[in-house]
Amino acid sequence: MSVSVLGRRPVVEPAALIAGLVPPPHFAEASFDSYVPDPDHPSQAQALAAARDFARPHQRRLRSRRGPGVGLYLDGGFGVGKTHLLAAIAHALDGRAAFGTFVEYTNLVGALGFAAAREALSAFAVVCIDEFELDDPGDTLLMARLMRELTDAGVCVAATSNTLPDALGEGRFAAEDFQREIQAVARVFEVIRIDGPDYRHRGSLDFPAPADAGALDAAAAEQGAARVAWEALVADLAHVHPSRFGAYVDGVRVLVIDGVFPLADQNQALRVVGLVDRLYDRDARVLAGGGGLETIFTAEMMRGGYRKKYLRALSRLESMVHAAIEHHRPV
């Protein structure tokens, strides 16, 4: 049975936002034992050991409130296993860790208010923040204050990013004007660098040619398939809050897209990045026709301050496209 996404306007209650702070389906089985370090990059084994050590005190006993919380910051490129290790920390703590992306936490504060969000997160031993990034001054101030108050209350913080904490916001706004707040974030963390290529493709991006009409029709006939025109999808996302993108694609096993073309502006592009992340979290597959998905972000966008977000989205899109092709490959 096919599903429809266009026109969905999901409502997510505050309690559901808190309950949803768990590793997504893509990382439901992530553990320290299932992380396989690349022997050519010793920093991966070092990061695994650091993540285990970070989780171990919380596995042995309930968190003490007698001292401030500490932080672990996993920094590296795309596809080196940072999110896997972060999810492994959350799973090891068995309900005593909150897990969400940076944007999910900022959306949580928007939904609950700062005081209520801080109170809810203070109940956890560890707050895990995936894809930590600061895209504007407001988020800088908000997250710096939230993390400072959580760690003062004894909550520990683990985060992943591809930007060192003292460089957060670089290239997006006048970071020097917010240096005190940025440094407050940086002081929380022990930084662990993870090197290596993107495991999803172990090299440069390699998108297949756009799917033809027959392949698109076949994929659209699958159970759980949603078929949309690219132009309509991009327009519809403007009416959905990013905190609800996950609910927007719930139940979608394969997204079939007709008529892909380059995006017109940065707002469209950032909404598509958010959608791609939530599709990837849910192990969805993607098949597209028209222009190549590798062309959706313009050269100007790729030179700007959000370049790393776009590269991550392209890496994840490529993985989901290849998954769709493999799914239909004759045995």
UniProtKB/TrEMBL annotation:
Domain AAA+ ATPase: 68-198
Originating species: Demequina sediminis
SUPFAM superfamilies in UniProt: P-loop containing nucleoside triphosphate hydrolases
Assigned keywords, A-Z: ATP-binding, Cell cycle, Cell division, Nucleotide-binding
Name of this chain's protein: Cell division protein ZapE
Alphabetized SMART domains for the sequence: AAA
InterPro entries in the cross-refs: AAA+_ATPase (IPR003593), ATPase_AFG1-like (IPR005654), P-loop_NTPase (IPR027417)
Lineage: Bacteria, Bacillati, Actinomycetota, Actinomycetes, Micrococcales
Alphabetical list of Gene3D superfamilies matching this protein: P-loop containing nucleotide triphosphate hydrolases
Underlying gene: zapE
GO biological process, one term: cell division
